[in-house]
UniProtKB/TrEMBL annotation:
Domain of life: Eukaryota
The species this protein was found in: Nymphaea colorata
GO BP annotations, alphabetical order: plant organ development; RNA modification
Pfam families (alphabetical): E_motif (PF20431), PPR (PF01535), PPR_2 (PF13041)
GO molecular function list: RNA binding
Intervals holding PPR repeats: 50-84, 178-212, 279-313, 349-379, 380-414, 416-451
Official protein name in the record: Pentatricopeptide repeat-containing protein
Amino acid sequence: MLEAQRVHGSLIKGGLHAHIFRCNLLLQLYVSSGFLQDAHRLLLSMPASNAVSWNTVLSGYVKSRSLSEALQFFRNMPEIDTHSRNSVISCFAVHGCCSEAIAHFSEMRRSCLSPDRFTYSTILTVCGFEVGRQIHGLVFKSGVDHDVFTAANLVRLYVDYDRLGDAYQVFVEVSIRDIVVWNALISGFSRNGRCDVSFNLFKKMLGEGMLPDAYTFASLLDVCAAQLATRKAVQLHALAIRFGISWDLFMSNCLLHFYSKCESVLDLVKVFSEMRERNVVSWSILMATLAQSGFENKSVELFHEMESSGIKPNSFIFVGVLGACARMAALDRGKQVHGHVLSFGMELDVITGSAIIDMYAKCGEMDSALKLFSDLNNKDIVPWNGMISGYAQCGMAEKALQLFEEMKQLGTVKPNEITFVALLSACSHGGLLQEGCRYFESMVSDHGIEPIAEHYACIVDLFGRAGLLKDAFDFVLSMPFDPDGVIWTALLGACRKHGNIRMARNVAGHALACKQNSSSYVLLSNMYYGSGRWTEGLEARLLMDRKGAKKMTGRSWINVRGRVHSFTASDNSHPQVQLVYEILENLSSQIVQVIS
């Protein structure tokens, strides 16, 4: 600003303020520095101005993203040329005002102004298919069809409407193809799941001597992630290292995203540790993947490490780390993260607020969850579901149902599939048989929601807890789709609870036919053991081994003096494992004494 004012003063003192060329340079200096009002005042004070003067200030308003000011200035311009129209069309395009951009394009043609390559390139980003085809014809007639940016946007247009043949034809007709055009076509086929075609184009590009960039690799990694094509992705990673692109931040984040999708935690951690630069996206992918892979404690530790590195967390980071705290039931850690949210003034954000509510609910702190829920403005279905689910998990079925009825009375939010899973779960755990059946029926009749497997599993559990095993079995057989292993296993659990071995055999057969799931084998063998039928119990376990069904190792967490420790069954990794088991044995003896 000071430099612009100094130059301005020198022009006036030297009597050069009437020189259009020098004044235009000063206008450009004001605009590039962001001082639009000063540029506007200088323009109005100039003894003489030209189209360059006015277009310079107009481009400043467009770059500032101020649509209203740009339009007002445009309407007051003494002369409109192609550059002026392009600026306004670009401004509308940036703001997503498609119809207005097309209207100005039409007005431009009616006023006998010739659209140029910038006009066509911009208007193609906002038009639909039919208008786009018409503009394609105009592009061909005008002779700018060989412009790479126009060609790239034509390719994107056809790809967006699944006209891959037309997109390829545009690509073939471009005489000079740069990386922008190649990327547009490769990205288009990748987004449409055409993995083989995308890689063939990539090979063709390399064969023609065109070097790929980070966006080329990003498109190919996306289709690899969608199809879990790990081998091809590893080859891409090696090529990225060879071309010196692997260190690019965008490229590194794409690699993180791919390894996250493939649940390859070791590769993900390796890429992250080798990154020269990291941003909030990098940390978010790593923390979310670790939390989803059973390393919740490490995910929370990384949150503090990220803050120490100077990266400011966003909503996605907070949602991820709060979810990790919720899964570990680490209330103290969750409260600390809540404090960080408050320090950034994000508590009233619906996304983050919903995550905090869910954390308190899963930690059994329903009073804290309710207080935050009451303070949250513009609530969507997510916090409502969090509260209803929290009440269900805490055995407060009546409160879950009461909150649902309050939501219905307000009428501002409609329930979804997750809402009814929480409701039916509350009814099941609360022994509310009639209410559960009524809500299940109302899903379709009152809310138009088709039940999915989770809803059927809740009803099976509801009947099972009530001891109505035959009703549960008949209900499963009446389902409109084939029951999966989860539903049969839920019924098998009810059979075990009520000691109905005859039905358990039948149900177990269905459960084992669905999936090689260890839960069914374990439940069945435990039933046999519990009834003294040791041989049959052992046979069920041996069958599980022959089928290759592995029992997932259970994991537990304990919070000691603010630090969360995780452990598994028969875990011997702790340095004081002998002392741990001695204390556990002592506690077990005390529990037995209290019970007896």
